[in-house]
Amino acid sequence: MTHHHNHHHHHDSEIESTLTFDEKMIKLLEHWVKHNDDHAETYRDWAKKAKENNMGEAGSLILDAAEMTLVINKKFEEAARIIRG
Asked: Of 28, 59, 32, 64, which Cα lies nearest the Cα of 46?
């Protein structure tokens, strides 16, 4: 099974080398939040589909995973806030 994402990773070392470590960390954290938001949305969609197809318990677990993903984002957002000062 392949895993596809609707985003691209840009690794321009020339641009990255001009960023401070703090700036790199913030960009990375922001990327992770966006990435997780995209996954959480997909999880919610599939949880709904599972429930519609008589897989209520599985759908509930997938929905839980979506919510857990958003809890992770709160940690990343707090880390970015601390770095920003």
From this structure: 59
13 within domain boundaries: no
**H or E element at residue 74:** helix 56-84
How many structural domains are present in the chain?
1
Residue 42 structural domain: 19-84
Prediction pTM value = 0.77
Q: What pLDDT score was predicted for residue 63? A: 98
Q: Which residues contact 16 (CB under 8 A, 6 or more apart)?
A: 24
Please state, in angstroms and rounded to a whole number, the distance separating the CA atoms of residues 26 and 61: 31
Does any domain span residue 26? yes
